[in-house]
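Cross-check.
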Amino acid sequence: MTSWTRYIGCVTIAAFLLTGCGTATDENADEPQEDSVKEGNEGNTSQGDNRNDRNDNKVRLMEQNLQYTINGEAKEKTAFLKKSDNQPFSLYVLQQFKLSGEEPGKDIVFLTEDDSIYMRIELLKADVNWDEVEKNVQAQLKSISETIRDPSLDVEDGKAFEVESGDEVITTILLKDEKAPVRLTIFTKKDRDYRDAFLEMVKTLMKG
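Predicted model, tokenized:
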């Protein structure tokens, strides 16, 4: 990964992050599983409901199909339920990606064939100061490029910022969910735009 990528992870204000538990571990399994994981009372697992109900206890199947686009081309692949040992959440991870702990309070989902394409996931405190987080995000992105733009992504209850550095695209998304606030940092390339794939996976994120 490039030096500015390491930098943007190091300067994140620790006060906004949840403390991670344990050392970083790779959470991706090679073989699909057909059982279900019981996380409480039953509920449906449709993509549209996962985001709104991410804090509600429910039964989650071990896999589900996700639809997304890459550079405008529609795709549909199977995603498998993964639980982080680093932060209190689970989500469905597409089969060509892996979930791994990066450091306490941070996980990444990366493309196995090119780990320079990845998404950092940071759960934030429930009483997070969004004004301070936004100022911090913009300061970090301006260290890469003075031109910060709105990527116009379909993000519910969120705000996004984006910069470019050569062929690389860095997108920070703040999901202002009252029950599960999240900060995402996505690293992609102009000719390999996996932002929609990452966002579809995040829609299935459930805290707890």
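DSSP finds four helices and twelve strands in the chain. The radius of gyration is 16 Å. Passed to J.P. for a second look.
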